[in-house]
Amino acid sequence: MKDTIISIKNVTKRFPGITANDDISLDIQQGEIFALLGENGAGKSVLMSMLFGLYEPDEGDIWIKGQRVKEYSPRQAARMGVGMVHQHFKLVENYTIAQNIVLGMEPITKGLGFLPLVNISESEKTIEDFSKRYQLNVNPRDRIEHVNVATRQKVEILKMLYKEADILIFDEPTAILTPQEIQYLLGIIRELRENGKTIILVSHKLEEIKEVADRCGILNRGRLVDVKEVATTSTREMANLMVGREVMLDVNKPTPTFGKVILEVENLHVKNQDQITMVKDVSFTIRSGEIFAIAGVSGNGQTEIAEAITGLKKTASGTVRLNQVDITDLPVRQRNLEGIAYIPEDRQTYGLILDDPVADNLVLKQYFQEPFSSPGGRLNPEAFHHYAERLITTYDIRSNKGANSITRSLSGGNQQKMIIAREIEQDTPLIIFVQPTRGLDVGAIENTWQQILQEQQKGKAILLISLELDEIMALADTIGVIYNGELLTVEAASQLTAMEIGAYMMGVKEDE
């Protein structure tokens, strides 16, 4: 029997209008991978934030290594050996990897015998040693602004290891990673356990939990409903406990009826900021009532295609037509008014204004129109509020203060629900979904898939860009597979197997 390293006893945490955690009691054993499951807004991150010292319980106690926590702060948590990788990274963009890792505990030497100087070279060597030991493979001299998402995650892990944490909390660690990056991260988590670390994995990705976790605790609307041995519990049972009902992800997709061509993309070329061509001579059409999916490994040009259609990125050459209107050179707002809705890949950078209320974010596409604004340009906050409350109810957006909640305070999954609600409500002929279920729990994925299919039944043309092959196979009528900026094939979904799509995604062409 392993020793108990964390004991959470009758913990309750309330915020105005909501009980985030309700009388939770839970023990975590030393050296295990313990998964904490729950829907978006179920209280997972709040519970872990108390363990990390960001919040203090309103009721109950937390014990770590046999000591009751009396002072709740991240500094005290670090002293007790607790580290946390947050869902949204907390890094300084213009600092190097080493500077981010040692921030707040920089090694000091004496210059000229008395001047305190930061010895960053010593830190870089220590970080290189940690990086090699745990196979994280980062260059401590690289600036954060120049590295990809997967490397940023490694930096967050190294921050914990540098501070000698032996209890490591991962909050939704795979929400923004590609499938290949996910497998790499799960390997790192196993390696950390083999090195004696205790891992708490906050997630709603059940297949990943089955792959690495020993036990799981399941939250539903703030209450702990069960603790299960992962090896003897099916993913379906976990999903049903999370959501509180039977969850069905087997899509009953009716036979589609296609109408006129809504979107025409012809000979599209797009370059990045370094003038490297990311999209090469791409052409395709999407009809009314059709779900056209682009499959591919992250970074092969699919995001640039979406941004060129929406106007966020300028085309190098080629034509984009919407309902036979050439929109290639139109500004973003004009394209929106012509009939484009867009769920972006990065919800926080491009989808939302995080420090504004939910109500303001939900009317970003129409605040300048009646009834949200008068002909003279005067805004109508009451109309904002009523509209937002309707969308909050319809799309099950969970927040502590409803329409008045600051968007940053919502969980990542509920932020995604906000964007989907705002864009679908535009009632446009074309909807572009880029990674629509990234960061969503199993119940929210089910709802999002149903919403996409409902929009298809209304005759909308839908462009779906996803890294989740299961999602593409479940929803798409037509699939284009992209590799290195080129569409290698465009076929009816019924004519492609997952294995064939996977081969195209790796750059294998038919004649090879």
From TrEMBL:
<dbReference type="Pfam" id="PF00005">
    <property type="entry name" value="ABC_tran"/>
</dbReference>
<keyword id="KW-0067">ATP-binding</keyword>
<keyword id="KW-0472">Membrane</keyword>
<dbReference type="GO" id="GO:0016887">
    <property type="term" value="F:ATP hydrolysis activity"/>
</dbReference>
<feature type="domain" description="ABC transporter">
    <location>
        <begin position="6"/>
        <end position="246"/>
    </location>
</feature>
<dbReference type="InterPro" id="IPR003593">
    <property type="entry name" value="AAA+_ATPase"/>
</dbReference>
<dbReference type="InterPro" id="IPR003439">
    <property type="entry name" value="ABC_transporter-like_ATP-bd"/>
</dbReference>
<keyword id="KW-1003">Cell membrane</keyword>
<feature type="domain" description="ABC transporter">
    <location>
        <begin position="263"/>
        <end position="509"/>
    </location>
</feature>
<keyword id="KW-0813">Transport</keyword>
<dbReference type="GO" id="GO:0005524">
    <property type="term" value="F:ATP binding"/>
</dbReference>
<protein>
    <submittedName>
        <fullName>Nucleoside ABC transporter ATP-binding protein</fullName>
    </submittedName>
</protein>
<dbReference type="InterPro" id="IPR027417">
    <property type="entry name" value="P-loop_NTPase"/>
</dbReference>
<keyword id="KW-0547">Nucleotide-binding</keyword>
<keyword id="KW-1278">Translocase</keyword>
<dbReference type="GO" id="GO:0005886">
    <property type="term" value="C:plasma membrane"/>
</dbReference>
<dbReference type="InterPro" id="IPR017871">
    <property type="entry name" value="ABC_transporter-like_CS"/>
</dbReference>
<keyword id="KW-0677">Repeat</keyword>
<dbReference type="InterPro" id="IPR050107">
    <property type="entry name" value="ABC_carbohydrate_import_ATPase"/>
</dbReference>
